[in-house]
Amino acid sequence: MSGRSNLFGLLLLAFACFGCTNSPGRPAADAVPIDPEDISNFDFLYAHNCAGCHGPDGKGGASLALADPVYLAIADDSILRAVTTNGVAGTLMPAFAKSAGGMLTDQQIEVIVRGIREHWSKPDALRGENVPPYSAPNPGDVSRGSAVFSAYCTSCHGPEGRGSPKASSIVDGSYLALVSNQGLRTIVIVGRPDLGAPDWRGDVPGKPLSSQDVSDVVAWLASQRAKYPGRPYQHSEKSVGELR
Length: 244
What we know:
Layout: H1 2-21, H2 42-49, H3 51-54, H4 69-74, H5 77-86, H6 106-120, H7 142-152, H8 154-157, H9 173-178, H10 181-190, H11 211-223
């Protein structure tokens, strides 16, 4: 009897183990959750953090295209890293790094920066071109910027920048409230290929904008920005209790 009992016990144990392994609801071996901080795949990180604004293939959307060799020619890795890490204050670009309140590690930021460069940059795309630098080397002049706008931009954006059948208003209060001066400079230089807007070489054929031209027109555009965006009334210095 003892031998039969032992055999029965072994069979019961084997059945129990087999049943636990295949019981309903038990996760498969390859279904173990991954710690979000361990994700290091560029395609995954880009799709879940960048594609919503910059497009699933980097060709633009609500924000400018990252798969643009002109943009990547003026924005080096330190710029891409800083913008991704800290965002851009006062705009729709949030901070993504944990150190700045986001959800990505510094290593994941590096994966994104390296992936953007490896996937979409073309080092020789602008060889021989006199490309205006990403950052303005000198302050812009508003009056000169008005003349630059008239010469280079009115054919699409209208004489006062309020739009035309070819392009939208570039002085719209909501737009200017959500874009930084650096954002304006970047767009003037690289254009918006996804929207049909040319880069700094294409506004007037044969007459590319100089770096100072870009600085001046950005200064003029910034001067059109409302001091108190979203307020359809004159600002008052009176306290709330004094307003009538």
